[in-house]
From TrEMBL:
Alphabetical list of SMART domains matching this protein: HTH_LACI (SM00354)
Segments forming domain HTH lacI-type: 8-62
PROSITE patterns, per the entry: HTH_LACI_2
Protein name in the entry: LacI family transcriptional regulator
Keyword NADP tagged: no
One Pfam family linked to the record: LacI
Native source organism of the sequence: Jiangella asiatica
Length: 346
């Protein structure tokens, strides 16, 4: 059944494309089953006739919603998270490619939020969930596994055994590459500005820093903050005021790195020439003139695609992706800019 606006039906699309009604249904619901040339011909007919499947009618037939639930976690006032913004965009775009949509909802963090997940399941509002912002002792993966609910997480479980499927970025590997980069430029006093102990993501990145220092023969120098610009500025300032200051600052996030850049400038020092600064996340401001922050870039679009593919594989909609069925760890890349462009001797 099509929309009232277009008047097109599954049968009229099939006639226009010269295929069977079942082939049109396969293009809409399981496109991987249809040959590329045939799929393109059907898609052209769909666009030409402005056919729009009636999701409500299809849900009644299949008892599925073709909706994936995604919880938008509350953020501190004034805070932005470009990484999760990119992830949500990649998630919704990839889901749409397979005829699914993403249902956004909010829930309190921790165990208090599980009732919201239970409500959506009781209403049959979603076919599965995509999680993000996973933290140490996060109750959601365990609860969803116990309920037998299909889900995939952007992020590991961080405590105890892994539950369910996840896609994540190897933060430790990204920081190792950052430390190796500044070491190759001649820096030997390399400090790390991290998050408070107990942050799964932050501890993972710290582990990469410590591993790189051990392998390269560097003395670790670790300071922690809450991750904001002002906190990074204060921590970096204290480090730079030391009688033997570091010549390179590797930061757990771009926000901390922006604060570090400010601390460097306030002391009349030059980023890259006097003090190297590296961030993590490659946020949009990193490439601005006057900032030009070297940063570790996460493959967020790939994370979104893989998350959808893994979840739809669990739902039996698509073939599971190649490789490990339940877990995938993606490697980030270091984007080098002016904040590390010159060695201490240069």
């Amino acid at each position: 059944m099509g929309t009232l606006e277009s008047g097109a039906t599954l049968e009229s699309v099939a006639a226009a494309a010269g295929v069977s009604r079942q082939t049109v249904s396969n293009v809409l619901n399981a496109p991987e089953r249809v040959a590329p040339q045939t799929r393109q011909r059907v898609q052209e007919a769909i666009e030409s006739l402005r056919y729009r499947p009636n999701r409500s009618a299809r849900s009644l037939r299949t008892r599925t919603s073709r909706l994936l639930g995604y919880c938008v976690q509350p953020a501190p006032e004034g805070a932005i998270n470009p990484v999760l913004d990119r992830f949500v965009h990649a998630l919704t775009e990839s889901a749409a490619d397979h005829g699914f949509h993403v249902l956004l909802f909010t829930a309190p963090p921790g165990a208090a939020g599980l009732d919201r997940y239970a409500e959506l399941l009781a209403q049959r509002a979603v076919d599965g969930f995509v999680l993000s912002d996973t933290v140490v002792a996060d109750p959601r993966p365990v609860w969803l596994t116990e309920q037998g609910v299909p889900f995939v997480a952007f992020g590991r479980s961080w405590s105890g055994p892994d539950h369910g499927r996840w896609v994540d970025v190897d933060g430790a590997a990204g920081i190792v590459e950052a430390v190796e980069h500044v070491h190759a430029l001649g820096h030997r006093r390399v400090a790390f500005i991290g998050w408070p102990e107990g942050s799964g993501v932050g501890d993972d990145r710290l582990a990469g820093y410590l591993a790189a220092c051990s392998r390269l023969g560097l003395t670790p120098l670790v300071e922690r903050d809450e991750g904001g610009v002002e906190q990074g500025r204060a921590i970096a300032g204290a480090l730079l005021d030391d009688p033997e200051p570091p010549t390179a600052l590797v930061c757990v996030s771009d926000l901390s790195a922006y604060g570090a850049l400010r601390a460097v400038a306030e002391r009349g020092l030059r980023p890259g020439a006097d003090v190297a600064v590296v961030g993590f996340d490659d946020t949009p401001a990193a490439r601005l003139p006057g900032v030009e922050l070297t940063s570790v870039s996460q493959p967020i679009e790939e994370v979104g695609r893989d998350a959808v593919h893994m979840l739809l594989g669990a739902l039996g909609v698509v073939e599971p992706p190649p490789g490990p069925a339940d877990h995938r760890l993606l490697r980030p890349t270091l984007v080098v800019r002016a904040s590390t462009a010159i060695s201490p001797e240069g």
